[in-house]
Write a structure and sequence with these properties.
With about 270 residues, the chain is α/β, with parallel strands linked by helices. The chain has 11 helices and 11 strands.
Length: about 270
């Protein structure tokens, strides 16, 4: 899907990003963390560029699905550059909420489009948080995952809220207390990974999944995804009331009417996001 060719187009123009690559093809945007010499570690510049490209993908009508990956097969992302810790002067709640880490990890629920993490390399520390923040995680079978912060006297504070949404407490504490690496298969068992595939099949499976999701109604995907995050943590009665209202609104859209008509007529729907 992402081979160079007439159907692929770069995002924001060649050379505009220094730490990531961005390409759109067949209604799927691929964002590649591109600091292989640093195991794709999250620098301040990379975080800023990710925030920029997330906004581009969010507002681009030609993008229906996002794939987030890392260059090379050594690491998806090794987390934040440790040398930069302590230099941001995060002292007050207002400053924290304007910081790059806060804005990055709170950007995922606001994307409005499905995002798939493609793990061809290890995901550790903030890199694991980055993967866990995605809606789906497809990993090669030799990939490892870890929260090693405890080994240097730290704690995975930046990603704990995200990991805790995916992993039961007993498994989460084992990750945090030991800093040990787990296999992709173990990650799937505890809720960090959606699917594990042989390395040779990784790209084909990610493309297959992205293509299948991109064929759905972009309006239905956005409103359904938004509703998922909107009701998270709320009382059951509030969740049901909110979701019922969303269902009524969604049923009145052109995409829903087209989908129902296509089902009754035994044909493929032509969704236009209205």
């Amino acid at each position: 899907m992402f081979a160079a060719g007439a159907d692929a187009r770069p995002g924001r123009g060649q050379g505009m990003y220094e730490t990531i690559l961005y390409e759109v093809a067949d209604r799927v945007a691929r964002i590649t963390l591109n600091r292989p010499e640093a195991r794709n570690a999250l620098s301040d510049r990379m975080v800023g560029e990710l925030l920029d490209v997330f906004e581009r993908a969010k507002t681009d009508p030609d993008v229906r699905v996002i794939v987030l990956t890392g260059s090379g097969d050594r690491a998806f992302c090794a987390g934040a550059d440790l040398g930069g810790l302590g230099e941001h002067g995060l002292a007050s709640p207002d400053v924290i909420r304007e910081s790059a880490p806060f804005r990055l990890f709170t950007a995922f629920p606001k994307l409005g489009k499905p995002i798939i993490a493609r793990l061809a390399g290890h995901a550790v520390a903030g890199g694991l948080g980055l993967a866990a923040a995605c809606d789906l995680v497809i990993a090669a079978d030799d990939v490892k995952l870890a929260t090693p912060e405890v080994n240097v006297g730290l704690w995975p504070m930046m990603i704990m809220a995200i990991v805790n949404r995916n992993v039961a407490p007993k498994h989460a504490f084992k990750l945090y207390y030991t800093g040990s690496r787990v296999t992709a298969a173990e990650g799937r068992e505890i809720g960090l990974v959606t699917e594990v595939v042989p390395r040779a099949e990784l790209d084909a499976r990610v493309d297959e999944l992205a293509t299948a999701i991109a064929s759905k109604s972009p309006l239905g995907l956005r409103r359904g995804r938004d509703a998922f995050f909107a009701v998270e943590g709320r009382p059951l009665e509030d969740q049901v009331a909110h979701l019922l209202g969303e269902l009524v609104g969604l049923a009145a859209t052109e995409d829903a009417q087209e989908g129902i008509a296509a089902f009754l007529e035994n044909r493929s729907p032509d969704f236009e996001g209205r």
